[in-house]
Design goal:
This protein is α+β, with helices and mostly antiparallel strands and 229 residues long. It is built from four helices and eight strands; from the N terminus they run H-E-H-E-E-E-E-E-E-H-H-E. Residues 41-68 form a coiled coil.
Length: 229
Amino acid sequence: MKRLKNWQVPVFITFLLLGLLLTVQFRTQQSYLSDLSQQKTEDLVTMLNKLYEKKNSLEREIFTLDEQQRSFSADVFAGEALTRDLRQELLRQQMALGLVPVKGPGITVTFEATPPIVYLDIIDVINELWASQAEAIAINDIRVTTWTKIYWNKQNLALTVDGQIVPFPCTIKAIGDPEQLESGLRLLGGVLDDLAIYDIHPVVRKAEMLELPAADRPEIKYLKAKESQ
């Protein structure tokens, strides 16, 4: 075996130490990288778990908001339905009171100018029509309501309805079941039989469609709604 030269020994030791340092550094670096990789994986797992939790939280929030939206939509629909029902009820009340124009089937009762008719005869016919379930009545296109005034104007010697003179021929229009309305007028011993005694024979006709105007709104001064207890 050859003897190492004097200068080779320090070089050998130097390379040996350098190799050891490189080995230690490599292992340290590998360990560090391994720890770093492991640390990043844990961080990713933690972040993923947090994302899942956030996702679940958002889904619960979306579900809650969806329920609130459905409840709100139901309330809006109920409110719209209530408003629609109230409007329909208001319209029915206005029609019944004569505050809006109306139309429908019914009958007409026409008095000629020649018979000696008086305003009480007109009132009798109207009352009989109400009793026969008439839903709306007009005299010569003047709507008859609960506040209608029918009287004989002595100055003009004319039938007067709510201050308006009614010329003859005078026609009463009534909306309702045509058969029932006519049957009510033609009852034995009824209003038409009473008029026939005085040779008054009004012409009664059924109509598929009648149109009646609205009445003038009454002036209310003293009437007040009673407060519910």
